[in-house]
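Researcher: We're teaching a course module on how sequence relates to structure. For the next exercise, students receive a sequence and then see the predicted structure as tokens, so they can try to spot secondary structure elements on their own. Here is the exercise chain.
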Amino acid sequence: MVNFLHISDLHISLRIDGAKNENSTPPVLLKSIINLANTLKPEPSFIIFSGDLTDKGDTESYEYFKTVISKSKIPNLLAIGNHDDRSNFRNVFYKSPSNKPFFYASEHDGIKVIVLDTSQPGKVSGSICEDQFSFLEETL
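Model: And here is the predicted structure for the students to work with:
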């Protein structure tokens, strides 16, 4: 059996002012998640962090997010959402800014995980582009 964690909609922001409880802001909760995940037995095969990783898609929030998840002993898989900014995300994680959809596949303990990007910049709705449909067909 494969165990994994799925954490969604963190909305990390270093620009939140006046939080009612400083101990429950998204940045503090992210640190708690990583600390707890590092103690789990059996150890999960991976953690999926799915969008919205940040609240505003700003570089500082992605840098914070990257720093915190780098402390994870467990492989991290990332998927972005409509609050994320593709270019800023890619620049922080891959030093390659691009506004193209972010999608990939990876395998962990015999489980293939496929991540697609349905976000449409500036919109709440989503869709899958032809490149992703082609990728999905090839991958499956």
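Model: If you want an answer key for the exercise: The chain has a mean pLDDT of 91. Residues 26-37 form the longest helix (12 residues).
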